[in-house]
Write a structure and sequence with these properties.
By secondary structure, the protein is an alpha/beta fold. 32% of the residues lie in helices and 24% in strands. The strands form three sheets. Strands 1-2-3 form a three-stranded parallel β-sheet, with helices on one face. A two-stranded antiparallel sheet has the order 4-5. The protein has a two-stranded antiparallel sheet with strand order 6-7. A hairpin with a 2-residue loop joins β4 and β5. α3 crosses α4.
Length: 146
């Protein structure tokens, strides 16, 4: 089901206690060219997944395998993960330390225009704070102009 060069977003009913993703399925997705996986639910086989050098994020873990309880029911549909709605076509940027950022497809151009301005402002804020300016004052000075 997973398409090459995509980022897979999986959601799970809160009442399920099993994992929806384990090492075998993560391996299969990597082999199929998936770029990463985010799970609004539980995963297992974390040590095995780390050996894959493949980005996987999850809300929780479980020692219970997927078994017969967890089955895919839809593909290319909107999912909600920790209160964030992710739709097919949205852009997902992942960082192994910081986590994920989801940008709705219709907001991408605006975000790409804004990000360089934020980076520049934050560099100025950092410099001011290093020179003794309060965070509040530095943010007011540099971030309020964006």
């Amino acid at each position: 089901m997973a398409k090459h060069s995509t980022f897979v977003m999986m959601s799970q009913p809160a009442s399920q206690t099993c994992a929806v993703l384990g090492g075998i399925l993560a391996t299969r997705m990597k082999v199929r060219g998936v770029k990463g996986i985010a799970v609004g639910g539980r995963i297992r086989d974390i040590t095995e997944m780390k050996k894959l050098h493949f980005p996987v994020w999850a809300a929780a873990t479980s020692t219970i395998g997927t078994g017969m309880e967890s089955k895919a029911w839809a593909v290319d549909v909107a999912v909600t993960i920790q209160g964030i709605v992710v739709r097919p076509g949205d852009f997902v940027f992942s960082d192994p330390i910081e986590g994920l950022v989801v940008i709705p497809e219709d907001k991408l151009d605006a975000v790409l225009e804004l990000v360089p301005k934020l980076v520049k402002a934050d560099e100025r804020v950092q410099e001011d704070v290093e020179n003794g300016v309060s965070v509040k004052e530095a943010f007011t000075k540099h971030r309020n102009k964006i």
